[in-house]
Specification:
16% strand; single chain
Length: 403
């Protein structure tokens, strides 16, 4: 029985953002069953130093620094008539690492995390190929195009078209294509006609995201509204900008001292500028997001564009906080009515105001949300379908080798 090669577009450690959280727990799940070798990119210098955290889960590890600029990637994409999503991740060193590992080890399964990494598959793989698309990225760029104009619209439409062609071709080669929600999987089936499409949902670590756990608390007496996320990611930027500029003013009419905290790493200049608005806090990266979530009177996720299952929403639910979200942000989550949904400025503002107006009811909603997450979204339960897809089972004593 051979080993597994895990190809990742971002090293899945530490599990501190959406894609890394899913990647880490899948890697951990696979490592409990077979020996797993990891080849992945890093785009944060700290991740190059912290990769030792994966030593207990992996055999050989090759972490390649990715530094290609967006401008270079775009220029190469135009010349090669490829999507930027591929040229941005085209790297000779990583390709050599894949070739080297496949020649030296008995690999029977290649797990590809994110479609950008499918370009590193052998031309005719002898191994089983599991393609974890997570979301349908081409649909995301199609949505970007509809919300843009001029040259940006043209570029986004180009990216959507070429990336769709890539996704469809990869699915035809893969033994299994995975998506994070049934909505994403069905969209992919409908648009591509692909078969062998499966759903493997995200989970949540409810022991870590537990309001009774030990973590640094945030002191606050005023009503606190919290948004969490990677703050150089376009949908998150658009969400907090929309909230600050149009929704928060309505809330502050009723609650003049209410504050809105934007919590997450790498805030862009546009996000930092929002801190100039009354009641807005931009924290940047924090050591532990749980303190801010626990302090929240309500957590909001007003995303206009969201694909798959939003970890930020599951984390807030696990922390027993009431959540007000857009329909897009709540889609795919079996929340049993514990997420309050609003689409318009007025609807979201009124949902938030209702919770701020009745803290006892807000606490009750939060408790119900945590109970739902505990019952429905443990990682063990969510990743169980992988075993049948890969045809593997738990092994008694995982084998390791030095990196």
């Amino acid at each position: 029985m051979g080993d597994i090669l895990f190809l990742g577009h971002r090293v899945p450690y530490p599990p501190d953002r959406g894609d890394k959280i899913r990647g880490f727990h899948i890697l951990k799940h696979l490592a409990a069953r077979k020996r797993v070798h990891l080849i992945a990119f890093a785009d944060d210098t700290r991740d190059m130093k912290r990769k030792s955290g994966l030593s207990k889960l992996t055999g050989n590890r090759s972490i390649i620094w990715r530094s290609k600029s967006r401008l270079t990637s775009a220029f190469q994409a135009l010349l090669a008539r490829k999507p930027v999503s591929l040229t941005a991740f085209d790297n000779a060193s990583l390709r050599a690492a894949v070739d080297n590992l496949l020649s030296r080890h008995s690999i029977d399964t290649i797990y590809v995390f994110s479609s950008q990494m499918a370009q590193y598959l052998p031309a005719r793989p002898r191994q089983k190929v599991v393609m974890d698309f997570v979301d349908m990225d081409s649909a995301k760029f199609d949505a970007y195009a509809k919300g843009s104009g001029g040259i940006t619209r043209w570029f986004m439409k180009r990216e959507a078209r070429l990336l769709f062609q890539h996704e469809r071709a990869v699915a035809q080669r893969a033994d299994a294509s995975l998506f994070v929600s049934e909505a994403e999987a069905q969209l992919f089936r409908d648009r591509t006609g692909a078969e062998r499409v499966h759903v493997v949902e995200n989970g949540i670590d409810t022991e870590f995201f537990d309001p009774t756990a030990q973590f640094k608390r945030i002191d606050t007496t005023d009503a606190l509204i919290v948004f969490t996320g990677q703050m150089d990611y376009r949908p998150n930027i658009e969400a907090v900008t929309w909230f600050v500029e149009t929704i928060l003013p309505h809330i502050r009419v009723r609650f003049p001292h209410a504050r809105f905290a934007i919590v997450g790493r790498a805030p862009t200049d546009a996000v930092k500028a929002l801190a100039k608005q009354p009641g807005v806090i931009v924290t940047g990266e924090v050591a532990d997001v749980r303190g801010w979530i626990a302090a929240a009177s309500v957590v909001v996720a007003p995303l206009k564009l969201a694909r798959g299952i939003q970890n930020k929403v599951l984390e807030a639910m696990a922390m027993a906080r009431p959540v007000v979200a857009s329909r897009a942000a709540a889609e795919g989550i079996d929340h049993a009515g514990t997420i309050h949904i609003g689409e318009t400025v007025g609807e979201i503002a009124e949902e938030v105001i209702a919770i701020l107006n009745d803290p006892v009811r807000g606490a009750e909603i939060g408790r119900d949300a945590r109970a739902q997450v505990q019952a429905r979204y443990s990682w063990e339960a969510r990743l169980a379908p992988l075993d049948a897809i890969l045809g593997i089972s738990v092994k008694a004593s995982p084998r390791r080798s030095a990196a």
